[in-house]
Design goal:
Helix 4 runs parallel beside helix 6, helix 15 packs parallel to helix 18 and helix 17 runs antiparallel to helix 18. The chain contains 20 helices and no strands. Keywords: ANK repeat, Kinase, Repeat, Transferase.
Length: 417
């Protein structure tokens, strides 16, 4: 299923063109060539979000939040009340006393609808008026967790509109800080997209769940990373954001940061020992995404981070030489796309040019097939250098063995005749 408001797009990356609280107004293009990072399609079956808070507050059946229905309800109420004031016959008043409960629900729903409309903020030019209108409808008794048809609550909308004061007001009035829209969007996710540190801190201090996931499996950390909001990214990490929490395609924040060339986020995650060897649903690692795109700073950071992290060289070699679902290693991917600098980096950190994929192709085979002559030269030089080192090592070992043998013979005691 597609998350509401999303559009599929080609390329390696996805998900950023439609933020969790908007259709496409906050989008940015990721681009790319290969891989499985989310394109906006959630895996598996969708889970019904159940009734919205407005529906729950109004009893069984869907909440009335359509403007024309509410206008008609108001007109009906005014007509019946006018009949009562004019002393109409009791038989004409039956609809009023029979429908008092229904009309009260209409009136409550109207207030809730107006609160959501106010929180949308489309009619106000400044924040002061925006906050005042939200407060006015709250004071009139509107339900603080009312939602529109997409499940967006006033708090989510206030965060989307980057309003600290409106968010503070709604929290003080008891808004559910973890309410999720039908897409799974939260106020914290939208604040993270906007990069508003004060707003993010306000929500975190109010107990907002830092690891809640939307319908794609994205967290506030992923959204902050996709929009390169480093200060918010760091703040979320400090408040317990799960470094390695997979999304719907088993991608992690590290993989997305590597694919988007978000070097600072990669380094922040590596400092906290994010797992570099994890793979997504197509078997891609963060290193593969960096290698495919030719992001040399990302690749360097990943290689050094793995080497200097827990497990050291053993973990680094595991990351470097692991194959994806097609059997391609990071070296093969870099070779195929002709990224010479990245190819050399990976070779220098233990990349094995002898590895072959499931079609029996090596890195040099892929480079030749794609016409990447510079990469072919680098790989052949690596093969020659490796052969010379092995030959020199074998000669040294043979020489040492001969010397040991001669030394042993000289030291042997002479037999008495």
């Amino acid at each position: 299923m597609l998350c509401a408001g999303d559009e599929e797009r080609g390329g390696m990356m996805g998900g950023s063109e439609a933020a969790p609280g908007t259709a496409a107004t906050m989008g940015e293009d990721g681009g790319g060539n290969s891989g499985s990072l989310d394109t906006g399609t959630a895996p598996g079956e969708s889970v019904s979000p159940g009734p919205t808070p407005m529906e729950a507050s109004a009893g069984s059946g869907p909440a009335v939040d359509h403007e024309q229905t509410l206008i008609a309800a108001y007109a009906k109420l005014q007509t019946l009340q006018g009949q009562r004031r004019r002393g109409s016959a009791r038989s004409e008043l039956v609809p009023l006393w029979m429908n008092d409960g229904v009309l009260r629900k209409y009136m409550d729903a109207a207030k809730d609808f107006q609160l959501v409309q106010a929180a949308n903020g489309l009619e106000y030019e400044d924040e002061e008026e925006y906050v005042r209108m939200i407060q006015e409808w709250l004071d009139r008794g509107a339900f603080v967790d009312s939602t529109d048809e997409e499940g967006y609550s006033p708090l989510i909308l206030a965060a989307m509109n980057d309003s600290v004061e409106a968010t503070r007001l709604l929290i003080e009035r008891g808004a559910n800080v973890d309410w999720q829209s039908r897409e799974g969007a939260t106020a914290l996710m939208n604040a993270s997209i906007n990069g508003n540190q004060e707003l993010v801190k306000l929500l975190l201090d109010a107990g907002a769940g830092v690891n809640l996931q939307d319908c794609r499996g994205f967290t506030a950390l992923v959204w902050a990373g996709d929009y390169e909001n480093d200060a918010v990214f760091e703040m979320l990490l400090e408040h317990g954001a799960d470094l390695d929490l997979p999304d719907g395609q088993n991608s992690t924040a590290l993989m997305r940061a590597a694919a988007f060339n978000h070097v600072s986020a990669v380094r922040m995650l590596l400092r906290r020992n994010a797992k570099t060897w994890l793979t997504d649903s197509l078997g891609f690692t963060a290193l593969m995404y960096g290698a495919i795109e030719g992001h040399d700073q990302v690749v360097q950071a990943l290689l050094e981070g793995a080497l200097n992290g827990p497990g050291g060289r053993q973990v680094m070699l595991r990351m470097v030489n692991i194959g994806n679902n097609e059997g391609n290693t990071a070296l093969m991917e870099a070779a195929n796309f002709g990224h010479e600098k990245v190819v050399q980096m990976i070779l220098d950190h233990g990349g094995d040019y002898r590895c072959v994929n499931k079609r029996g192709e090596s890195a040099v085979d892929l480079a030749r097939a794609s016409g990447k002559r510079g990469v072919v030269r680098i790989l052949i030089k690596a093969m020659v250098d490796d052969a010379e080192r092995r030959q020199a090592s074998a000669a040294a070992a043979k020489s040492a063995a001969s010397a040991d043998s001669a030394s042993g013979a000289a030291a042997a005691p002479k037999s008495n005749s």
